[in-house]
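[Meeting: bench + compute handoff]

Bench side (C.D.) handed over the final construct sequence. Compute side (W.E.) agreed to return the predicted structure before the next meeting so the bench team could plan truncations. Sequence as handed over:
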Amino acid sequence: MSHPDTFIRIPKERVGILIGPEGKTKRYVEDRLGVKVDVDTEGSITIGVTDRAPDPSVLLRAKDVVTAIGRGFPPDTAFRLIRNEDDVFDMVDLRVIFGRSESDIKRVKGRIIGSEGKTRKLVEELSEADVVVYGHTIGIIGSFEQADIARNAVQMIINGCQHHTVYKYLQRKRTELKKERLELWEKPPADR
């Protein structure tokens, strides 16, 4: 019986980061998820499930980790996807939105990053997701709720919303998240 596998491409300049010093990054992904990652120098990656894999779904998790590293995340940040099963990887491809218009992509990337990285940092801080702007993509890693908040903020910026409107949205969502967390810890009302 053959094991499932998948194929992806990452930018050539990210291949070394995926492999890591002495192959440590690639080996970590393989060992933790029970997959085999084959990398060529052109950025072609084949990921296959091994007999050590707990179930075939790890193939999707491994694909997300490799794609996240390929789209600009440092390996330690991408490993959130391994350490926490509730974390997800999301990606916005600006070429899908703007076609091949490099000027529009550059303008929107500048708006998402903000002056001295302020906007990107605020999106990260208030959503508690990790956000990377790399090439023509915006990558997001976080819990489903965190990633959704960050993606909505990015989409608002892409749609042309003013930054203060985006910041208000993020602050409101942050308050809602904190309130939900507090409600989890509150005691149920006593019977009367």
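W.E. noted at the follow-up: The longest strand covers residues 87-93. C.D. will use this when planning the next construct.
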